[in-house]
Amino acid sequence: MADFAPGARVRVKAMMPPGHVRTPGYLRGRVGEVERVLGPFPNPEQLAYRRKGDPLDLYRVRFPLGDLWDRDDADTLEAEIYAHWLEPA
Amino acid sequence: MPHDHHDHLSPSGHPYRPDQDGPLTYWQAMEIAIRELMVEKGIVTAAQVREQIDAMDARSPAQGAAFVARFWTDPAFRDLALRDGSNACAEMGFEVGPMRLIALENTSRLHNVVVCTLCSCYPRNLLGLPPDWYKSRAYRSRTVREPRKVLAEFGTILPEGVELRVHDSTADMRYIVVPRRPDGTDGWQPDRLAKLVTRDSMIGVAEALPATEAPA
Description:
By secondary structure, chain A is mainly β. Chain A contains two helices and five strands. Chain A: It is an enzyme of class 4 (lyase).
């Protein structure tokens, strides 16, 4: 069961762990809305070090482009974010 | 000669790629060492390596164009493609690849464009090898920050009122943009329509070709 349903508001955790991560820096700390739930997929942060990847839900999250760059902008951006990077907003 | 004073440019106006005379990088040396070891141990043959390179180079956007043309002409396929792009690929008999596919449909109100800021993820099974600019830091960083300017540089000026949606291909999905079907193509068969579907239109930096520009 996924933690977040489509439409849920989520914040990308503003953490800076070392090593291989697939969460772009420009999205950390930003709030978006779940567009769809995908997965589970093996955690790439473990796969990168040849460990077995724990299964994780993957979310497509939609962000207002203006919120990302602190300006008025009605365009949008979507990215795939793994479950452990998201918290309720 | 138009480029007499620019001898760093080729006759077609493009910069020459500098000779790669420097020492091998760590990873280049590693690739050669592992490849030669695998050939020596009989795990692969040199011919198999060459054939694989050939197969990679031979991929083209043709399968992507066929996918789009069927999307335009077959409503049941369109539904399937929007629900499960990978299954739609399989239905066409195309290699699905290890990643899942999401089809993004452009409409009169919404335009999609794809970028991979982290590396250069690209639906190679459908579109072939990515163009060099797709892998450039400029495209990768600017497309998430000022996408309308990037599109304008490709000659794609989006009107106000059309939402632009950028898709950052950060993980396990791959994306194909389905451009809008050009006007004046009613009744065209999929094979003819596919000729209007360019690589760039499936990345989202351009529209499909107008009907009047259909290649012979």
